[in-house]
Amino acid sequence: MDCRTTAYxxxxxxxxxxxxxxxxxxxxxxSVVLRSASSRFTVALAxxxxxxxxxxxxxxxxxxxxxxxxLFVLVANGxxxxxxxxxxxxxxxxPGAATATPSALEAxxxxxxxxxxxVLAGEGVQSYQIQTQAGMRQVQRMSLADLRSHRSWLLGLIxxxxxxxxxxxxxxxxxxxxxxxxx
Length: 183
Prior knowledge:
Helix content is 23%, strand content 37%. The chain has three helices and nine strands, in the order βββββαββαββα.
């Protein structure tokens, strides 16, 4: 199995997998699915000898938000479909991009912040789509407390994502400063 654990948006990403339990010679085909927050990308895999190989070209990956993605390799043979491999892959921002692109979680956080501002301005929130661990969910008229709770959850995910990428925390929180008196 040849799959990187890190890559850069804007660069070509190659995938190559050999599964003895799902041989290409028996008709197994495959695809790679990347999921993070509200982002989902699919790369088709084709047979090459006894391996399933595929690539995401640079112009496609340039549109991918930076972040930590769950990577799934799905294999199929007729009506039978299996998840042959799972791992995480960190997509770093495109180093050649003219402007910084927020990660998928940071984009969700911006939507939550806009909704909180709307509630505080008395406009209310008519409809809002949030990402949960179970998937996307449509919420009608979230309360301010619910929005703040969801914002805190997103901040925690962003900090964990940045730690997994080897970066420092972006979202600093208040911390208690104690008193110490020397006598």
